[in-house]
Amino acid sequence: MARPKGQAPKPEVLQKETQVVALRREGRTWDQIAQIVGYKDPSGAHSAYMRASARVVAEDVEAIRQIETERLDMLQSAY
Fold first, then answer.
1. Residue 74 CB neighbours (<10 A)
2. How far is CA 69 from the centre of its chain?
3. What tens digit of pLDDT does each residue of 37-63 get?
4. Model pTM?
5. Buried (b) or exposed (e) across 10-46, using 16+ Cβ within 10 A?
6. Between these two residues, 28 and 58, which has the higher pLDDT value?
7. What is the C-alpha to C-alpha distance for residues 29 and 56, in angstroms, rounded to an integer?
8. SS in 3 state form for 11-55?
């Protein structure tokens, strides 16, 4: 069941979301993150990441985007 709008998430939810963000920063795939954190499938990990991103300060989100962009650039230049 979804929590009421405006209510803070439970501490265990915040902890999982924080772990998801940290693992993604390390370059883990959604599948790997789901397995490590305990989500049923990769979409659960991605949803947690998106929820966490909505609460994160804009500078942190921009830093994550920059890291992702650099990784994609490296992958593209490899081919």
1. 9
2. 15
3. 999 999 999 999 998 888 766 667 778
4. 0.66
5. eeeeeebbebbbebbeeebebeebbeebebeeeebbb
6. 28
7. 20
8. HHHHHHHHHHHHHHHCCCCHHHHHHHHCCCCHHHHHHHHHHHHHH
